[in-house]
Design goal:
The structure is a homodimer. Chain A has helices at 29-38, 86-98, 118-121, 123-133, 153-169, 234-239, 258-263; strands spanning 17-21, 43-49, 68-73, 76-82, 104-111, 138-143, 175-181, 191-194, 200-210, 216-226, 242-249. Helix content of chain A is 25%, strand content 30%. By secondary structure, the first copy, chain A, is of the alpha/beta class. The first copy, chain A, has a 9-stranded mixed β-sheet with strand order 3-4-2-1-5-6-7-11-8, sandwiched between helices. In chain A, strands 9-10 form a two-stranded antiparallel sheet. The N and C termini of chain A lie far apart (63 Å). In chain A, helix 2 crosses helix 4. Chain A has a single domain (17-199, 230-263), classed as Survival protein SurE-like phosphatase/nucleotidase (Stationary-phase Survival Protein Sure Homolog, Chain: A). The interface between A and B is large, with 80 and 80 residues.
């Protein structure tokens, strides 16, 4: 149940407070499915972008002010919509709506996979990362299907299972989870695999076009290339019918590089 | 020297091709200083945003097309300006201007520090991360001074030294560098320290105001809090007069979390 209270300092029922956000915007079917999944686990508060924010990465809005408005639909209170990025939504939710850290922050369910390198570009995952930076157990969920008509029923089942597990057992320290669902009905999903991020990337291309004034413009396109042969990656898990769970860092220090860098003569 | 050729498939002089970008925009003093630093090391190609893009993180532009235009100033060719994000600039530079991977991608010099957690929000660092994902040795440079009148002369010296080192000795695998300069004259800088990312974060606040129509709006503000007592961090190095060099990952897998997650009962 979404709460109508503007100031939720404490859940009246002592149920966990669960912040739900996404990057596809508050009207996307994926976030409605995530609200459905969370509604049996706690008190759900939705703060999501007022427009699609896919590919926004960890952007924050500093050059202009933000708006935050209540959204109702057929008399039902859906949550708050924010004019900023997914990361802005998490910051505003904690600071201006909840006035406390929620017990869980979930983002998604994204329309499209955020496996492997997509974790870096994804607004969905950046919202979860912002939650984790703020010390909130945080999970991003994505379905490997870009369609607005995608079937999220299996995702609802697994998102609830994974979130319940984390609410009960806690999140590993300094970590968030990147969860991706294969586009399969519940019966055909083989289970959950804890995976590493596959070594894959986008080979970008640009579709160059000419405007009516003969000035060129460019649409970003690209091909996804998986260079990773491992069977312990998120890409492998998704291809083989598993839900992939990748634990994700927000300390980006490359400790493996210290030895090589310290061998260089840095003094002038 | 910035090249005037639109298609730089190969450096005519066999000098390294160095892509220079930033997030403060092509007219910022910091990028002019970085061009100056690189000009003795190779053939410099500038592709930078046409407007300030601070805090854009790893955002890419997928909902609208991009523009890419040549920029001249007093008859001198400065480079290309792009209507998109810092990450878009790197993608467009490789795909539409260079038609090859440059030998080095440098981003900055940012007006303001990108130490510790700022690596995640920074457009400067995201441009360097995009370069690294594409297999290009990549470095982001930032000065711990937000002013447009900051003195970049010491930065020019150290940016050249560090870049030359990497061009000569190569970059550790799967890594980029996050370089931050203390706001000190050259003589007072004690040298270079290879560091880890400090455990610090922004405690956000919002400045709530009322518009003339009595609708509230919010400006993101915040206080930077360093929770890290270590003397091996970038924050420590900057405070103690060193240039900090943090090797940065783009495989975000939290390997330390596997054991705890694999103990959970994931099967339904």
């Amino acid at each position: 149940m979404a709460s109508k209270n503007k100031n939720i300092k404490k859940s009246a029922s002592n149920k966990p407070v669960i912040l739900v956000t996404n990057d596809d915007g508050i009207t996307a079917p994926g976030i409605r499915s995530l609200v459905e999944a969370m509604s049996t686990l706690g008190e759900v508060v939705v703060v999501a972008p007022d427009s699609p924010q896919s590919g926004m990465g960890h952007a924050i809005t500093i050059g202009k002010p933000l708006r935050l408005d209540k959204v109702e639909f057929h008399g039902e209170f859906l949550g708050w919509q924010c004019s900023g990025t997914p990361v802005d939504c998490v910051k505003l939710a904690v600071n201006k709506i909840l006035h406390r850290k929620p017990d869980l922050c979930v983002s998604g369910i994204n329309h499209g996979s955020n496996s492997s390198i997509n974790v870096i570009y994804s607004g969905t995952m950046s919202a979860a990362m912002e939650g984790a930076i703020e010390g909130i157990p945080s999970i991003g969920f994505s379905l490997n299907n870009y369609s607005m008509e995608a079937d999220f029923s299996a995702c609802v089942h697994y998102a609830r299972l994974i979130s319940k597990n984390i609410l009960t057992n806690g999140m590993p320290s300094e970590t968030l989870l990147n969860v991706n669902f294969p586009d399969l009905p519940l019966k055909r999903i083989k289970g959950i695999k804890v995976c590493r991020q596959a070594n894959a990337k986008w080979e970008e291309e640009f579709d160059e076009r000419m405007d009516p004034r003969k000035r060129p413009y460019y649409w970003l396109t690209g091909k996804f290339k998986n260079y990773d042969k491992g069977n312990d990656t998120d890409e492998w898990a998704l291809k083989n019918g598993f839900v992939s769970v990748v634990p994700v860092l927000f300390d980006f220090t490359a400790h493996h590089a210290f030895q090589q860098l310290n061998k260089l003569r840095w003094d002038v």
